[in-house]
Specification:
- It comes from Amycolatopsis rifamycinica.
- This is Queuosine biosynthesis protein.
- This protein is α/β, with parallel strands linked by helices and about 325 residues long.
- A hairpin with a 5-residue loop joins strand 9 and strand 10.
- Helix 5 crosses helix 6.
- The chain is globular, with a radius of gyration of 20 Å.
Length: about 325
């Protein structure tokens, strides 16, 4: 990874901007391109876009994916990450200090309302953080009744699920919020469309991140509709820029374009963007600010180039931007 910076702990956003007296689109926006770095508010995003540019947004909704469990009589938390095709789930076992790495095949955990889950095998052979688990209940319904949004130590108190949904959320399925789109409001989207900026949907259901250790992203389920693929081609042939709203949208788009041409696609993606696989379709990205050593930084380099990302993060630290899902946002442009 080429991008290097130190993140002071006080720059982690500990609450939604609404709790700080701001509307969603009043968070700060850092715009970085080869021509320089600019600072503004997210509500001014349209000043940095052009008629014919295409914003590609993720319409996945956030699940209340954290639930209490008991393990050998001791309380822990289970994060439900990903639903698999065979009905099992990828889960993570957590204590207050971080992930529990001593799971055992066949281990049974007690959940609320008499439910349980059984660990089957590590999700990745040789790894210990994520497990494939059998859960003999309707998991979405169980989460709706007993779950809460996943949060990490930098967010000290609980917030309602509505605070973890974006204006584009239509299809529940993400363990964690596709947070790059959180600052969008209906009014802002209306202004952008009125000014000639295009908006196209796709779906990628996010799994759980690893704030304690840098890990490559897990396989994730995605869908790029035919209409979105057509809009991408239309914009590119007419000189418009394709701007992914979030690393999730970038991953899905690039997964549907192995040869540089976006086509309708659906399934699972294991694509990892980085120096060995630069972006072929995405010209820019709206994204939150990621922690040092996060694998998402490689994706940002793949889209905008390491020099642009490095300058952006140096400026964000110097100007005391706020990090993580409730923090400030950047627009990184390749050109």
């Amino acid at each position: 990874m080429n991008v290097r910076f130190d993140l002071p702990p006080e720059l982690s956003a500990s609450a939604p901007p609404e709790a700080r007296g701001l509307s969603r689109d009043e968070v700060r926006l850092l715009v970085a391109s080869p021509s320089g770095v600019h600072h503004t508010a997210f509500g001014s995003l349209g000043d940095h876009l052009r008629p014919g540019d295409l914003l590609v947004v993720n319409t996945s909704g956030t699940l209340p994916a954290a639930v209490d469990a008991r393990r050998a009589g001791h309380p822990i938390v289970v994060h439900f990450a990903t639903a698999l095709d065979d009905g099992s789930w990828i889960v993570e076992l957590r204590a207050p200090g971080g992930p529990l790495l001593d799971g055992r095949p066949g281990e049974r955990l007690s959940l609320a309302a008499g439910a349980s889950l059984t660990l089957l095998a590590p999700a990745t052979p040789g790894a210990a953080r994520l497990w494939r688990a059998e859960v003999p209940v309707d998991v979405p319904g169980f989460l709706a009744a007993h779950g809460r949004p996943i949060r990490y130590g930098y967010v000290p108190r609980a917030w309602p699920l509505a605070d973890y949904q974006t204006v584009f959320a239509r299809e529940p399925g993400s363990a964690e919020m596709p947070s790059a789109a959180r600052p969008f409001t209906p009014e802002l989207v209306t202004r952008l469309v009125t000014d000639g900026v295009l908006v196209a949907p796709l779906v990628l259901h996010t799994g759980v991140s690893s704030p304690e250790a840098a890990e490559p992203p897990q396989a994730e389920r995605f869908r790029v509709p035919a209409t979105t693929a057509a809009l991408v081609s239309w914009a590119r042939t007419r000189g418009g820029r394709v701007i992914a709203v979030g690393t999730t949208a970038a991953r899905a788009l690039e997964s549907s374009a192995p040869d540089g041409e976006v086509r309708a696609a659906e399934g699972w993606t294991e694509l990892v963007l980085g120096p060995d696989r630069p972006a072929r379709v995405v010209d820019g990205i709206v994204t939150g600010l990621h922690a040092p050593e996060a694998s998402h930084l490689l994706l940002l380099e793949a889209v905008a180039g390491a020099p642009v990302v490095q300058r952006a993060y140096e400026a964000a630290v110097a100007e005391r931007y706020l990090w993580h899902e409730f923090g400030d946002v950047s627009l990184l442009l390749r050109h």
